[in-house]
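Re: that chain you flagged

S.,

Sorry for the slow reply, it's been a week of failed gels. I finally had a moment to sit down with the sequence you sent. For the record, here it is as I used it:
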Amino acid sequence: MMTGARNGFLLLGGVTSLGAGALHLFAAGLHTEHAALARLMVVLAALQVAAGLLASVSTRKPVPLSVIGVNLVAVVVWGYTRFAGLPWPDGLDAAEAPQFLDSTCAALGLLAIAGAAVALLRPEAKLPTVSTATAAGLAGVLAVAAMLGGAGHVHSHDGGGDHTHAAGGEHSHDGTTWPRPFDPKAAIDVSGVPGVTADQEQRAAALIRNTLERLPAFADVSTVGALGFRSIGDAATGYEHYINMSYIRDDYFLDPAYPESLVYKVDGDSRTLVSAMYIAKGKKIDDPDLVNYGGSLMQWHVHDNLCWKQGAGGPVVAGVTDAQGNCPPQSVNPGSGNPMVHVWIAAHQCGPFAALEGHGAGQATGRRTDTCSHEHSGHN
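Prediction finished late last night. Pasting the structure tokens below so you have them in one place:
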């Protein structure tokens, strides 16, 4: 059992644990669309606050142990979610880049661990009153600054959502229209679309984020041939598709590390990577795995009017069928093929999942949510 004298290091550990708990409570409010994650944050925050309060009134040995234990859990979870990802709950299975709010919370947790550890190992240790008060005040200022910065916090979760919250929790749009213009430099926001569940919203947003982060690895068109990509010969349309047959045949699904097709914007001899075109092998366009993934946020489509002919490196697009369904000479129409969906990494007026317009838009079921012409319905 520890002595009854106040230990300045324990007080410091308690104050920083309180600060970390307050930040977790604040963060829980930014994640209300993900109920399980928000509840876990509230529980963790309550434990950090309770341990911090105990440190201010008791010097018994279990107190610093509790401060160390709860903050160690918080810091370890933070580390995994920023650099690896956790299998549970949904929304933490993909690494998320550290931001000021969560990094500050982790830093306060580390300070709490350090202060409590010193108090545990050296119960007689003292800190001057001024030093303790100054450190506690700085911790409080840091926590408040993180909260203020978090008012525009972007949180991203694989299987989870990417949202931008304005102060007061208001979104910057009416939340009812889709698609909305997409700007990869702005915060990702797919929220508020009627009929879209929280899980669908979260998965769609995470797919956008992961594609933005990983697809630029294929930006240099001169190198993708070595990876198995080849052009389908459609550069005349202004966009050139490169497909990878081995990626089409593999079991990866909506994985930006293994994109079945890459879309480059054509400017003379220059090619700029603008989109992935993910292809779902062996599925129909109305397969529940596709329809339910992002709901109406993501429009899967097929191409049943394309004509193909043999090129030097494999099949290339020869054109589209005419009004009678016939292909140009020496080309064939193999049918609709596998469903596909675009995910853009370049700005697009029709949203992050926009199809190419005209013949390039392909055919979809139901109301089109991947084109700017909302009057489209049924097959287009």
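What I noticed first: The chain has eight helices and nine strands.

Talk soon,
D.
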